Fold this protein.
Amino acid sequence: MTGTIVDGAVVVTGVGVASALGTGLEAHRAALREGRDGLRRIERFDTSRMSAHLGGTWPGWDGRVQPEPGRDLGLAESAADFPLHELALVAAREAWQGACLGPVEPRRAALVFGTCFGHGFSEFHAVADRVAAGLDLGGPRITISTACASSTNAIGLACDLLLRERADVVVAGGADTLLREAFAGFSALGVLSADKCAPFSEPVGTTLGEGAGFVVLERAPEALRRGITPWGSIHGYGLSADGFHETTPDPSGAGVARAIRGALLHAGWDARAIDFVSAHATGTTNNDRIEWSVLERELGGPGAPPPPVSGSKGQLGHTQGAAGALELILALICQREGQVPSTLHFRGARPGCPSDPVAAPQPRVHSVSRALKLSAAFGGANAVLAYGAPGIAPARCIGSPSRVVVRGVGVVGPAGSYARPGVDELTRRRAVGPCAEVDLGRIGVDPRRLDRSARWLTAASVLALGDGGRPLQGEASVRTGLFLGATRMPGESSRRCQEAIRRHGIAGTSASAFARMSVNAPAGACSRALGLLGPTTTVSIGPGSGLLALVLAVEWLALRSDADRMVAGGLDERTSPDGEDGGDEAECAACLVLGRTADVREEETVILAAGWGLAGPEDAGEAARQALAGREAVDGVFVDGEPRDVAALTRWLAPGASLGLVDAAAFWGTSEASRSCVLAALAVAHLDAGTASSVLVVAARGTSSVALRLERSRG
Amino acid sequence: MTAARDLDAYLERRERTLDEVRRLMASIIDYRGDPADIDPDAGLFGTGLGLDSLDAVEVLIGLEIDLGVRLEGDDAMRLGLRSVNAVVDVVMRARGELR
Amino acid sequence: MSREMLEAELHGLRSSAGSSRADHIAVIRVDGPGAFDLLEHASTRRLYLREGQMRHTLLLHEDAGILADVYIGSADDGLYVLAEGPAEAELVAWLQALRERQFPSARVEVCGQAAERVTLGVDGPYAWEVVSGLLGRAVLGMPYLTLLRREDTLCLRAGKTGEYGYLLVVPRSQATELEARLAEVGRPLGLVTVGREALDVCALENGHFSMRSLRETALARPLTPIELQQQWRVAYDKVFVGSEALRARRAEGPRVRATSFTADGALAPGQTVQLGGDDAGEILAATFSPSLGAWVGTALLTRRLAHPHIELEATSEAGVVHLTTRTPPLIDNLSLHVDPHKHSFATRASPAETAP
């Protein structure tokens, strides 16, 4: 086990907001007081051929327009006048200033940033980098991209960082812009309302918005020492996968229910203790009805209705990656006044919806001690945050951490696809080029609806699970999760979407291509194909994303009890399409399956995830130090990226180490997200073969530095 | 004689349009086999080819752009899209090739 | 059965719901580590089953003739095969023989359920309302071809009438009580009891393949999924019982194809159909449809003529019957216009308002 776990409260000491309601706390307070919404006609691009014309645009960008969609207008150029980090920094700075922090050691200040589409549908981790740089944050910088659940997930992960003492201050939240291409995609999906979004009511449909919302999180004792009155406390979070459809939620609501239970379990709370829910409530028929039926079941009972539930998308619009954070902040603003935010535009409940979702222009007086923030995203990723009033003491039970072991490995790459590959298979020839073809049908996976990215990820997961490709059933299904590290949108679907726009115009966007081109879409498709319905997330730190996903999965199994196995890894779909030279690119998906030693027979030799570390960019040494805690040296240090701090890494090698320093680039082409997982696969191969008894795997080039120590051990 | 010639003309146009519609459906469902194996009466949604709501959008766009036929109205969509042959009927009717 | 009784059953099936005993469906539970591989090998299409999912597929004889029209589903206690065609004992024996041939060392249990279970059917535009009244709200959200278990009842959403359809597999000991509760829940919802014949008429009206319309014919021996327009549930790149023979038939090029029709007079299976005096094929199945006020059915027609909107004749001592080939389904099913989350039988509009 690495490092300490602090059993303490996490509090919100600063909040910052920018949205359709305006810029800054005061603007939002005023809007809430006056019962206003920020939804208005979209001026920045032509909506005449779309199914909706309203949006929640940030007034800070009034007057800016997107260039006309010419033949060769790329997504990046289209977004040029709407730099995401600019919007994000407006809110992040306000939160930072509001926290009245004293001098902070930069390496102990982290950022967890949620976004759907990044800047121009790319640069996901780069935006986080710019935001962190703008605030002088030198600690881990993590981007979470699980569509509309991104910032909810981000705030939850930020708490983990604090309680694991990887940071002392974390700026967490999300941001997204409202661009024509995204608008067209949602329009093609038929989810946009012709009128202003009316959660739980008529007319059906959502209104797209944009914005940025950030909170500053700290461990309670530090904040209290400064005499800060926190906005609230964060107690836990739950994640789950629907595994149902690209865009439609599971009609049974089982996925959302699992995420709610996961959050309650993490917080140590009883469902009956919840006195408010900020729902996802997009205004679409499916979402609202399913969400309400789950809330009735999980938080209500015979004769006992659920607590007040409201949705804030009527005020803000659907702010995509920022939704969780912005809606939480509205709730915190109200909570401080002894109120809860209201649901706007309510004209009577749709079938299956609550008759009173706090329907009113203004917030309602209602004291909140413990509450939930729900988010349900495209791709089926659900995230639920358990938060509360500032003074609520932590109730979480912290048992001793479990030992986590590697149960399987799957690598799909240029040289072929392998289950638990040996050293030779991984290093015989330098791997460059597209993935070797995989016949999914023969493995037993339905290849329909799987684009290139989804195919490789699913194949690698099948190989790592070692179960013949059959979808998981029953308990195993809901207790096996999937954590993915990725850096780009799936190329094939993205190109197909852009091709559709080129051929048919913006109003002819391909709905299916749009649905499959989000960063988390491959994870959603894989969870659907294989029945991986446990906790899920998609993270990016640029190079090394896969290793981060692996480490977060290890930590989840070590500290949580709602999953028994985790599939975790990295994915890189080639950037150059068929026929074009990919240069040094190696297309790849590499996954490990993790479990607990409790599930392993006693005499069995296992590969243990013995330690792990997370630090800021260009701080591989610190990540390695954390991972080595409790041990003096290792037989091999495997590095992805130029080892900037070579001295700091080689010092961990045992004298006469059997493997020494291994550079990933020596045997594997450029695979930003997955190469670090290929390194982990190689480490496992060496440990299996007995050529080493401990290996440190380090990702040193991303927006965070990550390290994982793997060891041979007796079960 | 006229009747026989009319029939021949109709059958030829029918086979041609059936082929067009099969190829459109094959591209939408990423069909790995020969489009000629798609049964003319195969259902589109639910049973048969198993298209879903996402695919429905593609079908409408494909019909408009590739086959030049625009389907309007809920009922037109519901009835016009029940099977491959139903789509062929819609296309032929729009082209004046079906009474 | 009298014409009036059949019409009443059909009216119920098409406007509210009809319940039936599905004794013609063999229910077999297949369990054990080798269960999936066995059924995957038997099935004409790959199963890809998540728990709670069903696949509509076929079992063929070695000569590619159709043995059974089946649903295969994954429940919490194993895989279920719901088959029309063979009797339970025959199908159990067939599966066991297949296991011995293909997977001799595999551990598979093949258990016919007839001794312990009874299968009921509920079909119609408001069948969902009846079944959810019986088993709870979870039924409302069930997508097509999924299943769920409520206590001892296995509820599967399938159906071959073009309306909402559910099969309920219940313990024999509870069947009577359940049927009574079903009748009680269904009374205010217009539930009627229906028999095989009414369901078969609905299947023909909707162009659904039925084992009962399969017959021996010289036009194609045997009748395979190709002639019967069932290739949508065949994976040609897969090995299954009969795959070789089927691929051979496909390579030959089928000479006839099953085509739906309406007609102005009675027709019998086997009757020759002609176009301008030349033989064009023969009747496969035919019945009178009160909804359409015409005879409906399917005919095996020569490939060239196997298209809709063609006028044909069939001559007998009774006279000449005029047929027109059609694009099925022949009915605008009311179910297409009913949304379980918005509508209910009690507040339904009058038939005139919802007529196509």
